[in-house]
Amino acid sequence: MKKIVLTSVVLGIALFGMGVNAQSKYKKATTTAKPAANGQAPANAPAPANAPAPTAAPATTPAIPATGTSKYLNNNAAAPAGTTASPSVSTPVPAAATLSVRYDTTIPGGFDTKQEVSLRPNYAVERGLIKDRKPLAYDHLREDDQVWSQFVWEEIDGREKINQSFVYPGKDDNGDQRFFAILLSAIKNDSVVAFSTDNDQFKVPLTADQINNLTTGANDTVDVSDPISGVVERVITKKPKFPMDSVYTFRIKEQFIFDKEASRVFCRIIGICPIAKQVVAGKSQPRPLFWIYYPDLRPTLVKWEVYNPKNFAQRMSWEELFENRFFSSYVIKSTINNPGDKYLNALIRDPLFRLLEGQNIKEKIFNYEQDLWQY
Questions:
Q1: Which of 41-50, 175-184, 222-231 is predicted with the least confidence, judged by mean pLDDT?
Q2: Which pLDDT value is given to residue 357?
Q3: Domain assignment of residue 262, given as a range
Q4: Per the domain annotation, does 288 fall within a domain?
Q5: Alpha-carbon span 204 to 198, nearest angstrom
Q6: Which among 171, 180, 275, 285 could disulfide-bond with 249, CB atoms 3.0 to 4.6 Å apart, if both were Cys?
Q7: Percent of the chain topping pLDDT 70
Q8: In a domain, 5, yes or no
């Protein structure tokens, strides 16, 4: 019995000692900091009660570069030096991505579109003859042999059936087949000089920027979002002042000369002027764009073929079309019995009578040559 009581007493003393040294998990541990040797407060010393709270350092979030192969990504959004991007992990793009601006000067409708090059032959036969074509030189006309001469201004309407080749919107190796597109290509690629429409005597040349201002209007801004990366790109384009199909009228200046040496009448085209239809105050108004000296345009026209609806293999060049006069036109002005140098629309109001007067002018030129002969 004594042994049991002694064991209980020893066990109780041991449990009391363990309770004194144990700490509860809900009670903060208090540590006594030893003073430093130099008199400064130790690093782990508690702050005084009236001391201000320390300011936390701002968290620095590294900029995440926009990655990917989308065409809308800005070239400046590259990964910083010294970092290696994992090719298998797609890095998210931040919401506030850098807005890039791109200028697109291509005018919808074919005014300034870039010519696409075929990567394979577009024809079953090899076509290389058209590239080597050159216009034939004109016959020399001496001033002393010029017995009779008249100037005539005519207009070609592409809406007529015989003139539908002027507005054929097909694509070929050279580009757009519309005649107005051919004129723009000659100015841009063949260094053909265009002149102002202030007069038809080719006195004021126009620059490339002035020609561009004739066909283009105000800027149009469109925000394009990349569907893959979410990067927004601002595209600034040019609005056309008029569509390409609205240029279907072409004014030509011609000179008819009777040469006594050859005993025949020569017809020489001096210049060509495209006319656009623009809507002003709700009404369609014709607007001459520029004049081109026709002899400068011949080397370009000889390399462009005219659309032939009957046989695509037997197509003539545009130079052959004008020289052989395979087009329909109506007279708007002439130097025959016109001392006031006025157009027919200023002399005759009725459009039908203007057409009849134009036919009368053509008959006068035809009859002059026929009346010189005796049968």
A1: 41-50
A2: 95
A3: 132-203+243-328
A4: yes
A5: 8
A6: 275
A7: 68
A8: no
Q: pLDDT higher for 313 or 241? A: 313
- The structure tokens listed for 178 are 């519309």
Structure tokens belonging to residue 168: 């054929």
What is the predicted pLDDT for the residue at 241?
Answer: 74
Averaging pLDDT over each range in 203-212, 237-246, 344-353, which range is the top one? 344-353
Establish if 301 belongs to a structural domain.
Answer: yes
Q: Is the pLDDT of residue 57 over 70?
A: no
Domain count, the chain: 1
Tokens of 59: 């968290």
